[in-house]
Amino acid sequence: MSSEFDALLGDVGVERFLREYWQRKPLLIRQAIPGYSSPIEPDELAGLSLEEEVESRIVIKNGGHPWELRRGPFADDDYKALPEQDWTLLVQAVDQFVPDVAELLKRFHFLPSWRIDDVMISYATPGGGVGPHFDNYDVFLLQAEGKRRWRIGQHCNSTSALQDNPDLRILRDFECQDEWVLEPGDMLYIPPGFAHDGIAETDCMTYSIGFRAPSHQEILVHFTDYLASELSEDARYSDAGLKQPQDPAAIDEESVDRLQRSILELVQNREALATWFGRHMTETRYPELAQSYIDDEADLLEGLNAGIALLHNPSIKLAYRVAADGSVQLFASGEHCTVPGALLPLVQQICNQSYLTPQALEQWHENAEAIELLEQLLAKGYLLLEGDDE
């Protein structure tokens, strides 16, 4: 199963990578994608940064103050005012706007696709970078154009000292332990917590494939919010069988135990946890990019009968889960629906294929539940009829 992905990891291969490197230590892969050519040009990347809905930043090493951060959207004049070197443009979630960039993510499907966050692309002039820092998530750094020198440092955590810069989390101390120059096609994997510092040696573009890693704080807050939204007003603290207290002002241990049992009963609901997790991990950065392209089931059937393919909207995150009762939960853009287990092959196609051919869909034409599912996904803009994505 892993053989088709082994080439991306060089001599290491998928099994060894997962066993020895994933979330453990950095790995340099020379020519992970030989001859790689970026599907987007620097001018096109800058064009995206002019758009209101696109998250972008410019970091200037020596601007109005050391490591100056400017946030987009930008204007053409902003670029004219930049120095000749020592600056970096970073554009978030380019895969959600450029399908050819989204195709790159298929190469990383030796890992759960629902763990992938987005592809951030940076363009840097000579000397440009964002300073020595660490991330709390896994990241693959693919060199797309030019040369960038990467220095790898110590393992860090929330107690690591940072410079006095309110905008950027730049480390106060950096202990270089490895150093490499990456050229187009080279890739560097960095686990969570490892300090790293990338400095452009020439005009260059780097693709950062980041992974979702919600903090335990985030998990607890959002899961309990989800549980609370599902509870009835009738569910309340109760103490039937209460004994007369020795001191009416004292909170006794029996009361605390009673409350703890109630809370544990709620959070130990495994089905609720799984449903929330699927919804949370498929939340989309730009949900406004999903819009309906059909009016009713007749439009869908007409399209399918005409041999029109369906496409996965690249701005939408998809995942699925087979529940204990055999039904299938399909998660999309922070929502979910439950369908019969017989639709599992269709759900797998929807989640794993960016292009659903007419031949692959033909077997579902007479299945009312399958048509209903496809209609719902098209109505929400999670799937697109071929031709409507242009």
TrEMBL record:
<keyword id="KW-0408">Iron</keyword>
<keyword id="KW-0479">Metal-binding</keyword>
<feature type="domain" description="JmjC">
    <location>
        <begin position="100"/>
        <end position="228"/>
    </location>
</feature>
<dbReference type="Pfam" id="PF08007">
    <property type="entry name" value="JmjC_2"/>
</dbReference>
<protein>
    <submittedName>
        <fullName>Cupin domain-containing protein</fullName>
    </submittedName>
</protein>
<keyword id="KW-0560">Oxidoreductase</keyword>
<dbReference type="InterPro" id="IPR039994">
    <property type="entry name" value="NO66-like"/>
</dbReference>
<keyword id="KW-0223">Dioxygenase</keyword>
<dbReference type="InterPro" id="IPR046799">
    <property type="entry name" value="ROXA-like_wH"/>
</dbReference>
<dbReference type="InterPro" id="IPR003347">
    <property type="entry name" value="JmjC_dom"/>
</dbReference>
<dbReference type="Pfam" id="PF20514">
    <property type="entry name" value="WHD_ROXA"/>
</dbReference>
